[in-house]
Prior knowledge:
Strand order of the largest sheet of chain A: 3-4-5-6-11
Number of domains of chain A: 2
Low-confidence stretches of chain B: none
Strand content of chain A: 5-15%
Mean pLDDT of chain A: 88
Radius of gyration of chain B: 32 Å
Number of helices of chain A: 7
Pfam families (chain A): QcrA_N (PF19297), Rieske (PF00355)
Order of helices and strands of chain A: HHEEHHHEEHEHEEEEEEEE
InterPro entries (chain A): QcrA_N (IPR045603), Rieske_2Fe-2S (IPR017941), Rieske_2Fe-2S_sf (IPR036922), Rieske_Fe-S_prot (IPR014349)
CATH topology of the domain at 40-131 in chain B: Cytochrome Bc1 Complex, Chain D, domain 2
Helix content of chain B: 55-70%
Number of strands of chain B: 2
Protein name (chain A): Cytochrome bc1 complex Rieske iron-sulfur subunit
Structural class of chain A: alpha+beta
Number of strands of chain A: 13
Largest sheet of chain A: 5 strands, antiparallel
Oligomer: heterodimer
Membrane topology (chain A): Multi-pass membrane protein
Subcellular location (chain A): Cell membrane
Amino acid sequence: MSSQDIPEENLPAQQGHAHGAVDVADEKNPFADPGLPPHEHRIQDIDEEAAKRSERTVALLFTVSMLATIGFIVSYVAVPHDRSIYVFPIGHVSALNFALGVTLGLALFCIGAGAVHWARTLMSDVEVADERHPIEASPELRAKVHEDFRQGAKESALGRRKLIRNTMLGALTLVPLSGVMLLRDLGPLPGTSLRHTMWSKGKLLVNMNTNEPLRPEDVAVGSLTFAKPEGLEEHDEDFQKEIAKAALMIVRLQPENIKDKRELEWSHEGIVAYSKICTHVGCPISLYEQQTHHVLCPCHQSTFDLSDGARVIFGPAGHALPQLRIGVNDEGYLEALGDFEEPVGPAFWERG
Amino acid sequence: MKKLSARRRHPLAALVVLLLALACTGGLYAAFAPAEKAQADDTAQSLAIDEGKKLYTVGCASCHGTGGQGGSDGPSLVGVGAAAVDFQVSTGRMPAATSQGAQVPKKKNIYTRAQIDQLAAYIASLGAGPAVPTKEQYGPEGADIAKGGELFRTNCAQCHNFTGKGGALTKGKFAPSLTDVEPKHIYEAMQTGPQNMPSFPDTTLSEQNKKDIIAYLNAVNGDETENPGGLELGGLGPVSEGLFGWIFGLGTLIAVAVWVAARTAKAKKS
């Protein structure tokens, strides 16, 4: 229904001017206060039929919400949790998840939509002007508060009884120290543990996949293998702590492709072992491209050149990846010839 | 001897010689028949190699050299094995349209099964390399899916994402999605390390390990995989999905709120 259909007698008298205007333009104040615009009526204010319709709409929305809540309870009980259904365009979903989501969503949406419709069409929408008042208290009230405060200070005798005042200040100063002491529970200081890993001379390089020590002939050119130090098992209590530092990435290059002299010396027939922990913030880094010999860190795109001492060629990492010096023992297994010479992983304050 | 010589003009002499000759031929045939059959197999093999060489000369030699020795546009194929050929040609990566660009993408395969086998036979004849895996090697029988998941997260997830959805590498290179890749091709890729992917030979990732990985991928990514959450938004992980929820979910709510407030409830529309 549009405003044209409303019976003439139902229309209120048109207001000729804005109401609430308090100022007129004069020399002191060239900009007159325009006041509020004239109030416009809604159909529901004028037409009782329309208001009834709105009421029914709101009630319908609330009823749908109730039914949806009952539907939620029913689907919780009735729908088996392992049934899968196809819903366009979402695809295959768990029937229970879908039913619970739809019914609860509908129940909440209908409450919201009903409330909005009620407020917009039926509740009063008459503009109300409210004057703003100063927030400062009156001078008398302020004087009284000051007087009360002075009297209180005098009666407490803090100025006179200095012993109480000083011990109180002392107690209040010391109490936060107990909180500071609890910070010690953040753990013992790392000491030198950031500088050392489990690797040491003679430790075999154990393949993470097969749990067997690696031989040089196992490692093909272009392959990628991950290794842990001999003696570290997955069920060990400190496995995560140790592997976080000792994780090793083993690749084999053609010896003539190795540009860095030290890298070549520390390798065995082109097999090089590098720390798997990015020197930026310690992400596990092993996105190895076997043709370019680049390793990319997935977190911040630091890129290292494994054919050139794992030097940083892109990204925020500050150090080359530490290399582990390896050789072959008497039985033909790959072994470490010592620990990493520099701390693995991200830099820290005392790293130097 | 004299007796024989004397009878050489006998009318039946020719018949006797003929019978002897026939018996001799039959006996020889009986004695050598298995060997000849083997020879026939060799011939089939060398025929396949010959056919493969012809196909190679037409489709591959311009980049990889006339004898598979490699050139400025393509690597040497000596020792890459039949598995590499089967992977590269069956997935349409080879022959590549150009040697330029970050990496050669997957495209439509233009060779028949027989032609691929011939090409593979030719390349395998250039130097020993991994053979095309059999169904027993990559099939689901006897695979440990949980172990496969562990192995996948250790060896593959860094590039291919935790459920094999793929990911970006440096300078336009990327690790392709493993959804809809045939188990055989996944096996071959692990074994041969195509393009910039490192290889995972049987010495460091055993046959059983590979089988487990393939079974895991089929479990999380296969045709019958159930996804109870519905819309997976590319399966890129909780951060991207959460971001999508924040931007589009909240965005929709804000848009609805703006729309509700912008519509006037007045009888006289202004």
